[in-house]
Amino acid sequence: MSADALLDSNVLIAMVATDHEHQAASVALWTEPASERFAIAAHSYAEAYSTLTRGGRRGPFGFSPQEALAALDSVRAVTMLIGLTAAQTFDAMRDYARTNGVGARLYDRLIGEAAVMQGIGVIVTWNVGHMRGLFPNLVVMNPKAYAAR
């Protein structure tokens, strides 16, 4: 079974965090009358869990570990789980370094590489510019544009 699109971790976070500014538009991906099949990279679940449970000023959502796991589990139940092998992860990091990639955009690279490895040609993200810069051969759009197409 193949997916129609891969959802970025920022869409996943927006789906489950009711206080997120993009929550309604992200949830609309599920509520629009369509039979879309979405995939999410395993790495995105870890990134979302970290963000949702982060405390202090940099942690606006304040989920407990149990709340975060339950919320992410609910999305996992209706999406395809995909990921890179250990070797593919290291190769993606190596290629990122060869192109002078720095910092946290590496995580976007890993998410996009998972889409490429699975033959998924569409990434849905709130960071369209970042993903398009890394994957110019894929279709990259935000949830509003994806739902409206």
Please name the CATH topology.
Rossmann fold
Which word captures the global form? globular
Mean pLDDT comes to: 92
So what's the CATH class? Alpha Beta
Low-confidence stretches: none
Lateral arrangement of strands in the main beta sheet: 3-2-1-4-5
Number of domains: 1
User: Looking at the chains present, what oligomeric state does this protein adopt?
Assistant: single chain
Give helix and strand order, one letter per element, not per position: EHHEHHEHHEHEH
Distance between the termini: 22 Å
Helix amount = 40-55%
Share of β-strand residues:
5-15%
Briefly note the structural class of the backbone. Answer: alpha/beta
Mind telling me the C-alpha Rg?
15 Å
CATH architecture: 3-Layer(aba) Sandwich
Largest sheet report: 5 strands, parallel
Helix count equals 8
Number of strands: 5
CATH homologous superfamily name? 5'-nuclease
